[in-house]
Each structure stands twice: as C-alpha cells, then as structure tokens.
Amino acid sequence: MTMAGKAVIRLNDTTDHGGKVITALEGYVYQGVPIAAQGDLVSCPKCEGVFPIVDGSPDLKHQGKPVALEGMSGCIRLTAMIIL
C-alpha cells in the first residue's frame, strides 16, 4: 500500500540506522502485517534506545492516528529514517 508514492511502514520494517519497527497498530494490517503509525516504537542501535515514530501522514489515518510512511523519522534525534 502506498500514499503519495511512499510505502506504508509495517511491524519489523527497518531503519537506515539498523533498527526496526517494534510496535504497530492492532487490527490494521497490510498483506498480513500490522501497519505502524505515529507514536509506535522503533529500536535505534545507533542512538542507543527505543523511540516513537515522530512523523505520520496527515492524509492517511487509522482511528485518528497518522500512519507512518517510508522515509519518516523513527528516532528522537530525527536522523534515522524508516525504510523497507
């Protein structure tokens, strides 16, 4: 699933810092994998921690939560980008 040419982020997708998405929305899946939204958690080994996804699509929401898209930040320092 894409929005504005960017793929939706799902549970276990990776970041460019070697981390991965570790929480996602319950009951909202794409191809059998839960979709992540703003506020879901991402591990970041480079920044040494677990941080919330800070971005979300203003146009694609589930139960009021903006869905995370490819390239959005998954690190509090805004340096790690979520990739597929």
Automatic annotation (TrEMBL):
Q: Which Pfam families match?
A: PAAR_motif
User: Which InterPro entries does the annotation name?
Assistant: PAAR_motif
Q: Which domain of life is it from?
A: Bacteria
Q: What is this protein called?
A: PAAR domain-containing protein
Q: Which organism is it from?
A: Xenorhabdus bovienii str. feltiae Moldova
